[in-house]
Amino acid sequence: MTMLNINGTSLFYEIHGSGTPLIFIHSHGLSHEMFFPQIQYFSKKYKVVLVDLRGNGKSGDLKISNDEIMIAQTNDIKMLLEYLDISKAVFIGVSDGGLLVQKFSYLYPEMVSAIILSDSYSNNKMNGLFGKLASVIQAASWVTYYLPSELFLRSLKITYYRWNIAYSALRNETLKKRPTNWIKQRIALSKVDHTSLLPHIKVPALCVVGDFSSDGIRRMQETAELIPNSRFKLIEDSFDPSNLCQPRQFNDTVMGFLEANKDPSING
User: Torsion over CA of 219, 216, 52 and 167, rounded to 10 degrees?
Assistant: First the structure.
C-alpha cells in the first residue's frame, strides 16, 4: 500500500504503466477502486495514476471545515503530482470528481493538457425558496447514511439492476462507507458553482454522460457548453458512473479522445 503524508493528511495512491500521465479522480464517497475496469486498458499506453481523495478510501479523514474541503483536495492533488515529478497530465473526473477536475484546471492550467468529465456537472446550488426547502430536505436525508450499509443495498440493486459490474463495485464501496466524511463532502458540494470558471478552461475537453438520465444529460450538456474547446458524447445504455456501467464504451471513447489530442510537450 502506497501512502504519502502531505498537506496535513495521508493520501493513498497507485501508479500503473508508463507514458503520458492520466490522473483519475473518483466520485466523492467512493475511492480509486471504482476505476478497476480502466487500469489494464489504459496502462498499456499511458501512466495511470489513481488516488483516494482525503476523506475517502484509504486516505486520511477530513479534519478541516466543510468550506475548505474542495480547495484542500485540489491542493492535495497538486502536491501529489509534484512529489511524483509530474508537471503536466490529462485529468479524468467521474461524477463529483469532475468538479475537482474543473477546479484544478482553473487554478493550475499549466499542469493540465486535457480533461475528461464523465456524468458530471458544474453547478449544484439550488436558489429561491423552493431550492432552500429542497436543500433542507436533502440535508435531513443524509443522516440516514449512518444506518448500516446493508440497508442501502436493496435500493442500489434496483437502481443498477441493468449494470452488474457497476452494482458489484458500488456495493463494495457502500460496505466500506465513511459516514461523517461523506456528509461533510455532500455539504461542501451542495455549495459548488463552477459555471464562471469553465470559460477559462482552454484545454481540449471531453464531456461524456450516460443516456439513461435526462437530468444527467442536461447538466453535462450545460457544463460542456461553457468550456470553449469541448466535445459532448452520449454513452448508450448507461448511467452514472459510465466507466462502470459501460466500461468498454467509456474506455474506447476516452482512448479515441486521448489519441486525437496528444500533447507533444509531455514526455511520457
Answer: 180
